[in-house]
Amino acid sequence: MIKVFLVEDEIVMRSGIKNTIPWEKEGLEFAGEASDGELAYPMIKKVQPDILITDIRMPFMDGLELSELVKKEFPRIKIIILSGYNEFEYAKEAIHIGVTDYLLKPITAPNFWRL
């Protein structure tokens, strides 16, 4: 089963993603969650998910910093960045790091898990 790890500082958004997507039905395992990159990184190293879904702007360590660390240590992990910021510089940096997809919030559940 494909393991997915979620990093999102907004509790409503994190809960919405976690509780709305039919993980098992889609062949996925919800492998863990964290509220920022600093908390997430050691958990990701332990779980080694196949997919990382992360917000871009979070306290302590943002999604770009986290993505860069994860890509260096685990290049096979696919990364999906969620962003409420429609700024080209963020998307450009995400591409440079090697993220798989960059989605703008708000995200609707039916469109999200079709990726």
Describe the overall structure:
- The chain has one domain (2-112): 3-Layer(aba) Sandwich (Rossmann fold).
- Helix 1 (11-20) links the parallel strand 1 (2-7) and strand 2.
- It has 115 residues and is α/β, with parallel strands linked by helices.
- Helix 3 packs parallel to helix 4 (88-97).
- The chain starts with a strand and ends with a helix.
- The radius of gyration is 13 Å and the shape is globular.
- The protein has helices at residues 11-20, 37-47, 63-73, 88-97, 109-112; strands at 2-7, 28-34, 51-55, 78-83, 101-104.
What is the element layout, followed by pairings?
Layout: E1 2-7, H1 11-20, E2 28-34, H2 37-47, E3 51-55, H3 63-73, E4 78-83, H4 88-97, E5 101-104, H5 109-112
Parallel strand pairs: 1-2, 1-3, 3-4, 4-5
Helix pairs in contact: 2-3, 3-4
What percentage of residues falls in helices of 4 or more residues? 40-55%
Helix/strand order, N-terminal first: EHEHEHEHEH
Strand count, sense and barrel status of the largest sheet are: 5 strands, parallel
Q: Please count the helical segments.
A: 5
Keywords:
five-stranded parallel beta sheet, 115 residues, Rossmann fold, 5 helices, alpha/beta, 5 strands, 40% helix
Describe what is shown at a glance:
With 115 residues, the protein is α/β, with parallel strands linked by helices. It has 5 helices and 5 strands; from the N terminus they run βαβαβαβαβα.
